[in-house]
Amino acid sequence: MSVNPKIESPDALKHKLFRTKDASISRKEDPFDFVRALLDGAIAGAAAGVVVESALYPLDTIKTRLQTVRGGGQIVLKGLYSGLLGNLAGVLPASAIFIGVYEPTKQKLLKICPENLSALAHLTAGAVGGAASSIIRVPTEVVKQRMQTGHFASAPDAVRLIVAKEGFKGLFAGYNSFLLRDLPFDAIQFCIYEQLRIGYKLAAKRDLSDPENAVIGAFAGAITGAVTTPLDVIKTRLMVQGSANQYRSISHCVGTILKEEGPSAFLKGIGPRVMWIGIGGSIFFGVLERTKQLLAANKSSYSDKFN
Questions:
Q1: pTM of whole model > 0.90?
Q2: Are 277 and 224 a contacting pair, CB within 8 Å?
Q3: How far apart are the C-alpha atoms of 237 and 241, rounded to whole Å?
Q4: pLDDT (tens digit, 9 = 90+) per residue, 86-100?
Q5: Are 82 and 148 in contact, with CB atoms under 8 Å apart?
């Protein structure tokens, strides 16, 4: 009777059995739960967005007024919280949509992309999140900046009068310039933040603390804010012009600013913008990571309770 060469030794069978079992357990414990990632991201994003906007709204108002003033005009420092409540009504769902889309997109892309292309996954996820949330972020930004520059007294009045004078499209004034600014902004900021966190964690060989996440968020925000200031100036001018239609398009806006005010006009408000986004990045990413940790801990304790 011949021996079947395919029969494995007991040790080999044991090793194969445990390897298969471990792989099965791993797949069960680490599924790609799109809905869970979306919901957790939405909650964390909403919390972070509201906290940042509430804390730093005056700096944003100053930045907007600096960018819209022409020639030797002076900015007004009254009413720095003008439009805050109306803005929060838009920021909450916009931030929820952004992170709610960003997190599952990032996780999916990281599973697909090679490890050395993780930056591409972060860049793409940031742009996708920005595009998804723009449907709310743009009208919110239009109303906010019109109120910051004294056009309207309240958000409901702003919406009503903008639609009456400019039509529904008035709420999406400067939409293309918004995308021109925010898609690269979101992509660059989140890519810098995620890549710095990866490098820091590898160097420290541990998870980051809340202050460390905040510092990295501040650094990423400040750099991105400075680099995208010219795009922000263009976006602001197009959004606040109203029915006057001083600028017909992005290219016309750029040409007019260059002709009438010179290249330096594209850096208007860079100080408050860098400060606002730097501090905002610190708060946003700090709150974001803390909220994500709390949600993960809550999910873990819930699973332990019912499993």
A1: no
A2: yes
A3: 6
A4: 788 888 999 999 999
A5: yes
